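Example 5.3 — TIGR03086 family metal-binding protein
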Amino acid sequence: MTTTWDLLTEAHQALRTAVMGIPADGWGRPTPAEAWNVTQVLQHAAGDQRAYASALTGGPKPTEDPFAPSGELGATPAEVLEPALAATVAAFGTVDSPDTEVAVPLPPFKLPAGVAVAAAALDAAVHAWDIAVATGQLSPLSPGLALALRPAADALVEPLRGFAFAPAIEPAIDADEADSLLNFLGRRADWKA
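Solution (predicted structure tokens):
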């Protein structure tokens, strides 16, 4: 059986669009992911998607540590990204129900599939935003997408603060769902290159 996860599809498309929109001189630009440039964010995002697929299937793990990206792609952006996205889609496609417990690469290491797929989508969408704002593109993180991702963030972020997420930032009074999500994840929604 193949299950379709619309949230993952939308987040993957956001990441794909942001990566394909990187200008030739954009790969070394700084990003909201403080210590990483655009190339490293792409490596990290692709590695995280591979890690989700590997946790689910026992298949290939990322070729390098997603939390220590080298900054050297060694292939075209599409060759780095597309196999990782395809692996994640295929892995989650084997899950019959959003309530099925599945393995994930970070604590708590097992989640209901609906939360796990939202966590993979959250990762892809936020890194799409990182790349887009670092390279002068429009934000792919719409308020609607952010609203759909927020429950996963609420369920997963706190135990990973200081490792995968920075301290939360108080959102502005007029913040929309996208800005509020970014602030909750420790990103400045008004970040500029």
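Remark. Residues 6-141 form a domain with the Four Helix Bundle (Hemerythrin (Met), subunit A) fold (CATH 1.20.120.450).
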